[in-house]
Amino acid sequence: MLVISKDAPYLQAVTEVRERTTFVISNQLAVLREAAPRADAILVTVGEAGLLQAIFSVATRLRWVHSFAAGVEAFLFPDLVQSPVTLTNARGAYKRALAEFVMAAVLFFAKDLRRLVRNQEAGVWQPFDVDDVHGKVIGIIGYGETGRASAELAHAFGMRVLGLRRRPEQSRGDSLLESVFGPESLHEMLPLCDFVLLATPGTPQTRGMIGQREIELMKADAIVINVGRGSLVHEAALVEALQQKRIRGAALDVFEVEPLPSGHPFYGMENVLLSPHAADHTPGYLGLGMESFIRNLQRFQNGEPLANVVDKTAGY
Length: 316
Hints:
Blueprint: E1 2-3, E2 25-26, H1 29-35, E3 41-44, H2 49-55, E4 64-67, H3 78-82, E5 86-88, H4 95-110, H5 113-122, E6 137-141, H6 145-156, E7 160-164, E8 179-181, H7 186-189, E9 195-198, H8 212-217, E10 223-226, H9 235-243, E11 249-252, E12 272-274, H10 285-301
Parallel strand pairs: 1-2, 1-3, 3-4, 4-5, 6-7, 6-9, 7-8, 9-10, 10-11, 11-12
Helix pairs in contact: 4-6
């Protein structure tokens, strides 16, 4: 069963598996509730987690739920978490686009692209010095699919890469990393970084992990880049630090409240690069999410282990 609009253009991808699968495709509660007792698997698209929760109690045959997005916070309601139903996500489907945004943000600040555009628009010829990216340190908080894809590009630019993850032993010996840290060493890593990349999932453990104290530990010319979740950053503390120039800037794709409210300070800040949670919205990006589901559906049909299984207790 696909909890999705019947008009979604990326549905064409399911044609290759229709012979072996009966699909119910809808985002209407009445239709989904009627079909739920027959569903073995459910794909849920972004923003429709509430529909899954509404029909979950009657989906008595359900064995697998797949999130069209990488983030699964909205899926972790108690009934699903406590059930034997497997939850998977689209982890890694959008990593390349997000990594490219990360490097765009690095170059935006290193080369002061805002100043270049402002001078061009004003018809001003004003030479100035810019920074090298080579040799700068990027600290990646959340060294998963997106984090490592960002590390690959940063490494190609000659940057030094530090990583932080919940299980650092999984990245020991990674050729891209100069050092890898565990969560308890966040305060040790932050002062070393010219760029601080947040690419970790939003969980109770990561909520507000970058607050006033963490910002105080950063270099005065540090740049914060967030492509993870808005909940990772104490937004008021970041606003204050940016206004007072305690750090150089921030590039943000995600926010505590989305859409970002009209009149929010971020809109008027010269030292902020703001993306409306669209850093991975490349042509065909929704098709990448569907392809991730189709590959897992084929595994499900063949009785093979599913990819991208979410630890429902850890939250990712």
